[in-house]
Amino acid sequence: MDRLLTEDVDEDEKESIAKKMIKLVNLYYWALDGHKIKVDRELRVEKYPHFMEKKGFESYHSISILGRIFDETEKAILQRSEDDKQIQITMLPFFTEVEAAPECISLWEYNYEEYLSKSRGLFDLDKEEKNEEFEKLYQSYKYLLYDAEEFEETSRDLSQVYMEACAIYRIVYERARSTKSISKCRFVWVVAGAALCHLYATKYAAQRGEKTVLCPLSVTRQLY
């Protein structure tokens, strides 16, 4: 099929490919009907287009529309990777100065490694299912942190929540810095973002002798 989509292939080759495809389709339906079939060597593919990434098989660089789309996508991914490497990932002192107990650090190092392991299996899913499964995964770790679905609903001691949130922050950001991958920071902000923002606001206000006020975002918008 790839050769049929390649502009420079002459008509004789395209006609030959079309005939082979018709034979293969017929064999396919024969097999579905339960017949024993044999695929002639001339019908077998010896090389695959590079975008199929068939490991263990010979390949050729396809210049069909599919091959060109694949190449452009690879360039975009490479460029994004290069851009990510140029981004400096730094940590906020407000979060790094919070001391965490060794058992807390060990717990969230284990949880984060577990998350990374589980998340790898989700990337092969289609977009909608992948998003749903990631949401469930994030929610499970939020519950571990808050003992509730959200920070606002937690009944845990806030100092303990803040300590764990800051431990998660350091673990995740250190990994992101070592791998130069800013996308890895997502975990901490989805899971512990609410606690970190609340802690930041509290400490920021305390430094200035001010008080913090919790206010719905909709109310804040009405002030401006």
UniProtKB/TrEMBL annotation:
One of its GO terms (molecular function) is RNA-directed RNA polymerase activity. It comes from Setaria viridis. GO terms for cellular component: nuclear RNA-directed RNA polymerase complex. PANTHER family: RNA-DEPENDENT RNA POLYMERASE, RNA-DIRECTED RNA POLYMERASE. Residues 112-215 form the RDRP C-terminal head domain. InterPro entries: RDRP, RDRP_C_head. Pfam families: RdRP_head. One of its GO terms (biological process) is siRNA processing. This is RDRP C-terminal head domain-containing protein. It comes from the Eukaryota.
